[in-house]
């Protein structure tokens, strides 16, 4: 990957818009992992819903098919392999990937209707869905397994479900590119989290949700320290901050092409349309106030 120059892309889309649209769409996708309507669908299939992980892994991995923990670990990247195995090894015996895909659409339908009310079937959401779909359909999914798996699914007919599906393709497209940026930076799965915590993207306690032990976290910190990326307290050095900055710039650059298909006018319009729906999702109280994504902090 070449150096990201921070300029306007070939389609006239400003880099700040690429990041902003991710910030706006991510909560609309993430409702899948927190909404009671979605948990209810999983529970009806026999999944444990006392915590979110037994449903998170099969819901997110379902587009890949009935793959094992090794494939899911590779695609999800930052989770401890033992944690993935704990939830994936038995997931497909509870419900098939096809059943999970149907359940997540039913759940999102209920969640969106609960959050957005009458606006779920309104003209503004339909316009946003059409623009987001155009961007998602323009996404090149070569080398991006999660984006490709979601893009291969049939598009739902209802506009609000199209908006969620487009948001999912686009966030997985970005996430796949983010993994490529981490690989180029030489950050393994646990190092990627330690280095992100080191710049204050989220608390260490929040990153512990990915399943790494204290010993694994400490070992990763020591490896980063040996590279001059964190100090003895685990805070990022100047070199560590610069490396993470390059990772995020490369991630934005690799995520830009779908938005270039809309042009600056199109992405500006989509950003305007999404604002109220973004506020509605955040105001629902369903999403945690702090996430491992570092949205709003990076």
Could you say which structural class the secondary elements and strand pairing correspond to? mainly alpha
Main β-sheet: number of strands, strand sense, barrel status?
none
Mean pLDDT: 92
H-E order: HHHHHHHHHHHHHHHH
What's the shape?
A: globular
Residue stretches low in confidence (pLDDT < 50, at least 5 long) are: 1-11
Radius of gyration: 19 Å
Q: How many domains comprise the coordinates?
A: 1
State the helical fraction: 55-70%
Q: Which percent band covers the strand fraction?
A: under 5%
Task: Please specify the SSE layout and strand pairing.
Blueprint: H1 15-30, H2 36-45, H3 53-61, H4 69-76, H5 81-88, H6 91-94, H7 97-116, H8 123-137, H9 145-151, H10 159-184, H11 189-198, H12 204-207, H13 214-226, H14 238-254, H15 257-260, H16 263-283
Helix pairs in contact: 1-10, 1-16, 2-7, 4-5, 8-10, 8-16, 9-10, 10-14, 11-13
